Amino acid sequence: MSIQNKIILGTASFVGIMLLVGWIIINEPARMEVFTQQWEGRSIERGAELYLNNCYSCHAEDGLGLSGYAPALKNPMLFLEENPGKVANDQLRAMRAELNQLRRAIENYQADITLRAELLARRDAAPEGSEERQSIQMQLDEVDTRIRLFDPNTPQKIDELLPRIAEQEAKVEELRAQGWELNREPRLKELNWTGGLEAYLRSTLIAGRPTSGQLWNGNIMQAWGQEAGGPLRPDEIENLVAFIMNYREEALKLTPNDIRQGFKIASEGTVAADKEVLGAGVDVMALDLSGGDATAGQQKYTSFGCAACHSAPGGAAYNFAPTAGTYTRVENVRLRLDQFSGYTPEQYLAESILYPSRYIVPGGEAVQMPANYADQMDLQDLRDVIAYLSTYR
């Protein structure tokens, strides 16, 4: 082959390779998107199988829950950022407050007109130059100022506001009839959960809800993740999360009347009546924190919801405050900070549990840890959890 033909062949090959690479580059995003969709689809399918094998007996095959037994997962209150019933009711309250304010303004104006006439009569009857006359004049000046500041359009504003209130009242009643609770936040806001829905589902699946029997007639949601002693691998937990998240589009079209069972919230009455909880404001430094049982503490660490965030990969606090190594970090890092001078590891842990906002671990600024454990734990609960954490040296 001549040199000229070799050059032509090489040039053609180079151009062909460049065209092929360019074609791949152009089409790669679309190919990856298709691949991702296929992967997510398979994950949802596997999650559906796991749901039918493990979850449907409580949450129902269609995800709409079983009355008195377990809540719906295909639930608008799980996926919504705002409860439309509460939003509409809050707007109605604001309108009514505005109406009351306008009506009070008219009442005050009318009262000032009457008061002005009385003050004028008293002033004119008082001796010229007397202190009494001067005092009345000062009061009269204040009344005149209020009268001048009165908005003459107030009656018109009331007339315009009344039909808006009537329309809003009808809207609120329509939402109430659909089953929306007017003073309740969506699920994540209700729980003060700031880590996102996927993280909430993941942590709940992994650690379960050991105290759910108090709400659901003894029906307890077990821990499903292997990290918390359950049967499911991390990838299976992720498949279940994907399956439940796939409810979103359909759930957002539903109203509370379309599901069989909504969420319940634990009331303060779920704490045993004979349990002497520590109570808000307890002085950590005055507590005797010895005598904890690490075995009991492990169970309590899960039942109080700590394991869901701190022990499970993907948990809200796992990346910056994992359970593993807790006690070692306290001794080697936290207690070297000036603000914890004089603390023992147990006192630091107690304060972190009862008053989590006093010190935010680096990386945890965006995560809100529950601040009501003092109203849930008695002294032995706290001792046991600390004893359990002390095993992570």
From TrEMBL:
<feature type="domain" description="Cytochrome c">
    <location>
        <begin position="292"/>
        <end position="393"/>
    </location>
</feature>
<dbReference type="GO" id="GO:0046872">
    <property type="term" value="F:metal ion binding"/>
</dbReference>
<feature type="coiled-coil region">
    <location>
        <begin position="158"/>
        <end position="185"/>
    </location>
</feature>
<keyword id="KW-0812">Transmembrane</keyword>
<feature type="domain" description="Cytochrome c">
    <location>
        <begin position="42"/>
        <end position="248"/>
    </location>
</feature>
<keyword id="KW-1133">Transmembrane helix</keyword>
<dbReference type="InterPro" id="IPR009056">
    <property type="entry name" value="Cyt_c-like_dom"/>
</dbReference>
<dbReference type="GO" id="GO:0009055">
    <property type="term" value="F:electron transfer activity"/>
</dbReference>
<dbReference type="GO" id="GO:0020037">
    <property type="term" value="F:heme binding"/>
</dbReference>
<feature type="coiled-coil region">
    <location>
        <begin position="85"/>
        <end position="112"/>
    </location>
</feature>
<feature type="transmembrane region" description="Helical">
    <location>
        <begin position="7"/>
        <end position="26"/>
    </location>
</feature>
<keyword id="KW-0349">Heme</keyword>
<dbReference type="Pfam" id="PF00034">
    <property type="entry name" value="Cytochrom_C"/>
</dbReference>
<keyword id="KW-0408">Iron</keyword>
<keyword id="KW-0479">Metal-binding</keyword>
<dbReference type="InterPro" id="IPR036909">
    <property type="entry name" value="Cyt_c-like_dom_sf"/>
</dbReference>
<keyword id="KW-0175">Coiled coil</keyword>
<protein>
    <recommendedName>
        <fullName>Cytochrome c domain-containing protein</fullName>
    </recommendedName>
</protein>
<keyword id="KW-0472">Membrane</keyword>
